[in-house]
């Protein structure tokens, strides 16, 4: 058994506080940005993968992505997880330092910002997404560690020896460190898989599609160790969590897009031959 005694506040200046949770977001974005720029410099343009973007263009992209992540993530949490509360407390929406971000909302924000960029620069939308997708797990893993340090998104009760007692848990139960499980799954495992898959030339849409599938599968699995939000509970007759409800369509959409991607590639090859 482990007792969680991490202080969620990194710096306390009285009226202003810097939390580990916020730093986790910043660190994830910076690490993803640095790694992606290295890949841009090393990779040459090929038949299927999108690598014609320049480092200066990517600097602009990251600004759009950050806005998409923050605005989409926050609004997604408001809409998907606690609309009733925030509809009665509008100003609470702006208190980002208190936590409350949704990956699925952040994903929609990134999709929208990438769509705007593709229109502005004349790129194909999914070419931009194929380039971004492999590096997203870097940020996901960092944010999940931030969730753990912030003592939020607690795991379900357990008797495993590595169970954790969180200070935010009013019941004081030993729980799964589900945030760290998700950091490993969404961060390390998904990152290694995406880097391996995107290393070889793939048809347009394929890398983005595989990310949707990979994240959806990992999220559905790790949600089995995570306690549903108290004000939501389980969905679908008490069978699955809200996170799983939102992730299952990602898997389905990813499979459809992946099939379309490879089918379209075969048709192009047949036309060329």
Nearest-angstrom radius of gyration?
20 Å
What characterizes the major β-sheet? 3 strands, mixed
Q: Span from first to last CA?
A: 63 Å
How would you spell out the order of helices and strands?
A: EEEHHHHHHEEHHH
The tally of helices reads: 9
Question: Portion of residues in helices?
Answer: 55-70%
Counted beta strands:
5
Strand order of the largest sheet: 1-4-5
Task: Give me a quick take on this structure.
The chain has helices at 20-42, 55-81, 83-88, 103-121, 125-132, 136-149, 178-198, 206-222, 242-272, and strands at 2-3, 9-12, 17-19, 164-165, 174-175.
Give structural notes.
- The chain has one domain (2-272).
- A three-stranded mixed beta sheet has the order 1-4-5, with no helix packed on it.
- The chain is built from nine helices and five strands; from the N terminus they run βββααααααββααα.
- The radius of gyration is 20 Å and the shape is globular.
- Strand 4 (164-165) and strand 5 form a beta hairpin.
- The protein is mainly α and 273 residues long.
- Helix 1 runs antiparallel to helix 6, helix 6 packs antiparallel against helix 7 and helix 8 (206-222) runs antiparallel to helix 9 (242-272).
- The protein starts with a strand and ends with a helix.
Keywords:
single chain, 273 residues, mainly alpha, three-stranded mixed β-sheet, 5 strands, 61% helix, globular
């Amino acid at each position: 058994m482990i007792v969680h005694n991490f202080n969620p506040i990194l710096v306390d200046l009285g009226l202003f506080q810097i939390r580990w949770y916020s730093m986790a977001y910043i660190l994830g974005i910076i690490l993803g940005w640095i790694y992606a720029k290295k890949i841009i410099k090393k990779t040459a343009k090929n038949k299927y993968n999108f690598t014609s973007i320049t480092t200066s263009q990517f600097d602009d992209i990251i600004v759009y992505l950050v806005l998409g992540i923050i605005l989409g993530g926050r609004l997604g949490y408001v809409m998907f997880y606690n609309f009733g509360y925030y509809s009665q407390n509008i100003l609470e929406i702006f208190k980002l330092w208190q936590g409350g971000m949704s990956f699925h909302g952040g994903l929609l924000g990134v999709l929208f910002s990438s769509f705007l960029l593709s229109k502005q620069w004349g790129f194909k939308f999914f070419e931009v997404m194929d380039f971004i997708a492999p590096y997203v797990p870097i940020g996901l893993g960092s944010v999940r560690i931030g969730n753990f340090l912030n003592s939020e998104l607690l795991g379900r009760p357990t008797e495993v020896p590595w169970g954790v007692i969180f200070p935010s848990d009013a019941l004081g139960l030993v729980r799964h460190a589900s945030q760290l499980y998700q950091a490993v799954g969404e961060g390390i495992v998904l990152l290694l898989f995406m880097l391996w898959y995107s290393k070889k030339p793939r048809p347009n849409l394929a890398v983005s599609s595989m990310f949707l599938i990979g994240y959806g599968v990992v999220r559905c699995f790790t949600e089995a160790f995570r306690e549903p939000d108290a004000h939501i509970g389980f969905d679908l007759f008490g069978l699955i969590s809200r996170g799983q409800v939102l992730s299952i369509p990602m898997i389905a959409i990813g499979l459809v897009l992946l099939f379309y991607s490879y089918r379209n590639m075969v048709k192009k090859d047949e036309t060329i031959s």
